[in-house]
Write a structure and sequence with these properties.
Elements (H helix, E strand, L loop, with lengths): L6 H7 L3 E6 L4 H14 L4 E4 L17 H9 L1 E6 L9 H6 L7 E4 L15 E2 L5 H9 L2
Parallel strand pairs: 1-2, 1-3, 3-4, 4-5
Length: 140
């Protein structure tokens, strides 16, 4: 029998992936993941970072289906958001893949959007601080 106070622990136990990232490959992201490799290599993670050479079309490119992306989010403790180049609020990663799936979103700073606040709805760190922050969060 489960009790109401058991739900947070059950939710985390049911998430075998520590870290998830889904997004197209850019030079900026490649450099970030190379620098973060010493920390991220110790984690159970799934990174889907295809090289994008045209529209993402299911079955014709390296695109994940929406269903696959959402299921991966449900199985992850932390969803990472790293901008391609500019710091816009990436709805599909932050809201759909993270907040709605009850996955902790860790992002570098974004443009502010009404209704969503860093520190309340997602966590925000400068890019160079993200690996250490994720390591620290997973240890709590």
């Amino acid at each position: 029998m489960r009790h109401a106070h058991d739900r947070p622990v059950q939710a985390v136990v049911g998430r075998p992936l520590d870290l998830l990232f889904i997004g197209g490959l850019t030079q900026r992201r490649a450099e970030f993941f190379a620098r973060a490799a010493p920390v991220f290599s110790r984690l159970r993670h799934f990174f889907h970072i295809p090289e994008v050479r045209g529209p993402l079309v299911t079955g014709k490119s390296a695109a994940l289906t929406t269903e696959a992306a959402l299921e991966l989010s449900r199985r992850s403790k932390i969803l990472l958001n790293v901008h391609q180049e500019t710091s816009y609020f990436e709805w599909h990663r932050i809201v759909m893949h993270g907040i709605w799936q009850k996955t902790l979103v860790v992002s570098e700073p974004c443009f502010r959007v009404p209704g969503f606040k860093p520190g309340e709805h997602y966590l925000e760190y400068p890019l160079e601080q993200i690996p250490a922050a994720i390591d620290r969060l997973l240890g709590t």
